Amino acid sequence: FYGDVGVASNLKAELLAILHGMKLAWRANFRNILCISDSLLAVNLVLEPLDVFHKYAPIISHIKELLP
């Protein structure tokens, strides 16, 4: 994945990469996918209940919408 996220943290880049990959999979009609990340923090943010006050809550929420 390559994209311009501007000036951002590595966490934002990780979350955007997860979101981009999931969007690509959904567009290709893949629903049973395995997402692997080297960022435990990003994985935990996606798997745990959403903190609506988190800096990246909109991105995390969008990822969660794509989860089964």
TrEMBL record:
It comes from the Eukaryota. This is RNase H type-1 domain-containing protein. Gene3D superfamilies: Ribonuclease H-like superfamily/Ribonuclease H (3.30.420.10). CDD domains: RNase_H_like. It comes from Cajanus cajan. GO terms for molecular function: nucleic acid binding; RNA-DNA hybrid ribonuclease activity. Residues 8-67 form the RNase H type-1 domain.
